[in-house]
Structure formats: structure tokens, C-alpha cells
Design brief:
This protein is of the alpha/beta class. 33% of the residues lie in helices and 22% in strands.
Length: 488
């Protein structure tokens, strides 16, 4: 969606949205007395009160036909929510036959950041994945292509530049998560990311031969049942003057399709497992956002890309594999594969780039969905200061997270009688034991956090900033974490 800013309302504007705070009055000076009476009466009839995201739509006479006036609520006081309002506007009128909407903030006093959040949410909510649709009723086709914001304060252009970069990252993530598994697999995933080099991102790609040399038995064990070769993709963005090691590594689970392997998942719903690479998608989107806005940070993003399939060469329950770290793992369930991928990727990034902080993201456990549904992702950390930074970024960005406990008592649950560890614990505390497993591959002195986002990367109903489908969860919290804590 095109976002523009104007000092005055463009002529021949057929649709105009007036921003209204809760229990406030819209600025109607542009209209004649009869039209003002019509708008005020319609607002009362619709019980419009200006709560964030509420809308009243009024059709009014114009010199040439009929125009549309939209009253758009943003709330008031500490509950003002420009993001919710922007998303609501785009969601309501995306397929309404309107091409452009004029948004007038007269009578309110938004900051440049608030305007940017409004515009970013509208653009994000308007995103659709219609690549494979060949037939669609006209009334279902998107028509809204642009929003023009009138009267934005000085500094809005700079704020919008950052928000627009974030949206570009979100769109990349959503596209990757939405693609079907016959189109998106480890090699094609890498190809989709090659354009990042044009933005100044340095790419390093490991094929299976290179991974074998590194001794990545955990990751390769997951991949061995698929005809699609695994890949590791490292993306390094350095917007600082320093040539040293990255300050933070973002690590993503990229299982481009997960059948469960020999521990086969039930058939109903298996088609959803195309989004089991949502953690990797979020890391790629965050790296693009950082590069587009030229973040003054030194960050590396690394994703482990595999397909988990159940052929005659597939990993078996009962196998023992040796990870790159040298630690051995007894495989009790081949559907607990994401932690195996993360184990080797985390070891590799520590040995090659020595980051002081690691944050991994993964659609890791069904237990997380049982715990939190689709309202929060789970946060696990070995360092309270890092956990606090991530929770602050979560609140500021809107990507909601909730911290879970970790302790030696949970760690004992994954001890194996024949290897260093087993890849699953008992039925209880499944998300916690998965995090305890990953922690065993984090070097002493490295701050580490794990985000289990299993319930967050895909939505069965629209949200304030996304339609049904891929949400882009993780991109915003990572971007905010870097902005607030790792940029110079």
C-alpha cells in the first residue's frame, strides 16, 4: 500500500477519514451546515464513541455524486491506540471499492511516531497473499491502494522511513510463511533471501557437505529423510564502524515442512506445517528491516533450513546422533526435530562469530499452544537482564510474550540413560524441557533467550495488523530489541 503525506486535503477527495478521540468531536469545518448535521446524527445513531478502532461510516452529498465520511476512533489518554485504528481502517475498506482514503488528524495532536504506527498498521493490515488465486469474485478483490495523511507534524517522514522498513521486513516474513512447501524448501528459501545482498547484508550459505564437515549430526539427522537438501543461511548486517564480532545473533528454526518424520503427525491439519519455518521467517524479516533502515548495529541472523520427511532413510526413534558441539542425543521422537536444528545452528554461530547474546525463535512445541493459545509467545532465558529487555521490546512492539521458568529440576527430565541427553522429556512441561535442551548448547557466559512462537505465526482469523494467515510475529519484537539495546 502507498502511504503519502500532504499539507492540505487533496481536491476531489471522495473518501475522507476523520480521526476522533474517545468522547471527542470530529472537526467538520470543511462541510456545510446540513452535512455537519447529517454526520453528527449518523454518529449518534451508530453509537460511535471514539474507542480505538471503532468506525462510523456516513455517505454525504458532493458536487459530483456521493462522498463517504469515515469517523475513526483512536481512544484517549493512556489508551490511545493509533496502530489499532490504522489496522481497522484498512481492514474495513480493503475490498470496499475505494482506491484511496484521505486521513485527517485535525483536532488531535499525534506525534510523528504515532502517525508512523498508524500508517504502518494500515499498510500491514492491507497485505494479502493472493499469488495463487486465479479466480476471485470482484467484491473480494482488494481495491484500496493508498492512504494520504493530512496535517502530519514535522518529523513524520523520518518516523515513517523506519516504520516502512519494518513493514518491508514483515511482508517478506509473511510471504515466506505463506508459500506452499512444494515452492518453499531449503534451497528456494535461500534464493528468496539473496536480494538482501543488495541492501548490504553479507550472506554465508552452508550446504550438506559443509555441514557434514562441521559434524552437524543433529541437524542432518532431521534432514536425512528428505530429498530436499538442508541449508544453513547466515545473514550479517554491520551498520557500525566496528569490524568486530556481532553483538547479537538471531537464530531461527526453518523446518520448511514438518511431517513429524517416522513419528508421523496426524493427517488432519498437517498442511499447516508449511509454517514450521516461522522462526526462520521472522529472523529473515528482521534482518531485512534492519538493513533497509540502515540500523547502526552489528547483527547476524542464522537460520537452519530442513524438511522433515519419513522415507526409508529417515531418522528413527531410538537413534543416537552426535551434534556439532560433540554432545550426543538419543532420539525418542522424530517430531521433536526443531531443537535438533537449533542445537547445531547455535553451536556454529558461537564457534564462527562469537556473539555475546543469542535470541532464537522457533515454532517449537504444541505444548506452548496449550499453555498460551495464540495470545502470547513463550519466553525462556538464562539471563534476567536479557529477559527484561525482550519483554520491554514485546510491550513496545505489540508482539506479546510471557516468560516461563527454567531450572535444574526441569533439566534432569531430558537426561538419557545411553547418551548425553534425549530429545524429549515427559508429557508435562514440554515447552520448558525443550528450552532446557537448547540451553545445553549455549556456551558459558553467553546471554541467551528462546522464543517459542508456535501459536503466533499463523492466525485463523484477522487481527488488527494482519489478515487470516501469516502474521509476521517476531519481526517487530526483534527490530525493537535491536533498536533499544544494540544500536549505537
Amino acid at each position: 500500500m502507498q502511504i503519502d503525506f500532504a499539507a492540505e486535503t487533496p481536491q476531489n477527495s471522495n473518501t475522507i477519514a476523520l480521526i476522533v478521540e474517545r468522547d471527542g468531536k470530529p472537526v467538520l469545518d470543511r462541510f456545510d451546515a446540513s452535512t455537519r448535521t447529517l454526520i453528527e446524527g449518523a454518529a449518534i445513531a451508530a453509537r460511535f464513541d471514539g474507542d480505538a478502532g471503532t468506525i462510523a461510516e456516513i455517505f454525504v452529498p458532493q458536487e459530483q455524486g456521493t462522498g463517504r465520511v469515515v469517523l475513526l476512533g483512536v481512544g484517549s489518554g493512556d489508551e490511545i491506540d493509533h496502530e489499532k485504528a490504522g489496522g481497522a481502517l484498512a481492514g474495513r475498506f480493503l475490498t470496499a471499492g475505494i482506491g484511496t482514503i484521505i486521513v485527517d488528524f485535525a483536532g488531535t495532536n499525534p506525534s510523528p511516531a504515532a502517525i508512523a504506527r498508524f500508517a504502518g498498521a494500515a499498510a500491514a493490515r492491507a497485505w494479502r497473499f493472493d499469488v495463487y488465486r486465479t479466480k476471485q469474485p470482484e467484491r473480494q478483490k482488494p481495491t484500496l491502494t493508498g492512504i494520504t495523511i493530512v496535517g502530519a507534524p514535522g518529523g513524520t517522514d523520518a518516523a515513517w522511513t523506519k516504520a516502512k522498513a519494518l513493514n518491508e521486513g514483515l511482508e517478506l516474513t509473511r510471504t515466506l510463511v505463506s508459500e506452499p512447501p512444494n515452492i518453499l524448501y531449503p534451497e528456494s528459501f535461500v534464493d528468496r533471501c539473496r536480494h538482501l545482498e543488495e541492501l548490504g547484508v553479507t550472506l554465508t550459505i552452508l550446504d550438506e557437505a559443509a555441514m557434514t564437515e562441521h559434524g552437524m549430526g543433529a541437524l542432518l539427522g532431521v534432514s536425512q529423510g528428505s530429498v530436499r537438501e538442508a541449508r544453513i543461511l547466515a545473514m550479517h548486517w554491520n551498520g557500525t564502524d566496528s569490524a568486530g564480532d556481532p553483538d547479537i545473533a538471531l537464530v531461527g528454526k526453518g523446518v520448511t515442512f514438518d511431517t513429524g518424520g517416522i513419528s508421523l503427525k496426524p493427517g488432519p491439519g498437517m498442511e499447516d506445517m508449511k509454517w514450521d519455518m516461522g522462526g526462520a521467517g521472522a529472523v529473515v524479516g528482521a534482518m531485512k528491516a534492519l538493513a533497509v533502515r540502515k540500523a547502526k548495529a552489528n547483527v547476524i541472523g542464522v537460520v537452519g533450513l530442513v524438511e522433515n520427511m519419513p522415507d526409508g532413510n529417515a531418522q528413527r526413534p531410538g537413534d543416537v546422533v552426535t551434534s556439532m558441539s560433540g554432545q550426543t542425543i538419543e532420539i525418542l521422537n522424530t517430531d521433536a526435530e526443531g531443537r535438533l536444528v537449533l542445537a547445531d545452528v547455535i553451536t556454529w554461530v558461537q564457534q564462527t562469530h562469537r556473539p555475546k547474546t543469542i535470541v532464537d525463535l522457533a515454532t517449537l512445541t504444541g505444548a506452548m499452544i496449550i499453555s498460551l493459545g495464540s495470545e502470547h509467545g513463550g519466553l525462556f532465558a538464562n539471563d534476567d537482564s536479557l529477559a527484561d529487555q525482550i519483554l520491554a521490546a514485546s510491550r513496545a512492539s505489540g508482539d506479546a510474550l510471557w516468560r516461563f521458568p527454567m531450572s535444574p529440576a526441569y533439566d534432569k527430565l531430558i537426561d538419557s540413560p545411553i547418551a548425553d541427553m534425549k530429545n524429549i522429556g515427559p508429557r508435562g512441561a514440554g515447552s520448558i524441557t525443550a528450552a532446557q535442551f537448547i540451553q545445553r548448547f549455549v556456551d558459558p557466559g553467553v546471554r541467551w533467550a528462546h522464543l517459542d512462537i508456535a501459536g503466533m505465526v499463523w492466525a485463523d482469523k484477522p487481527g488488527s495488523t494482519y489478515d487470516k494467515g501469516a502474521t509476521g510475529f517476531g519481526v517487530r519484537v526483534l527490530d525493537r530489541l535491536v533498536r533499544d539495546n544494540f544500536e549505537g
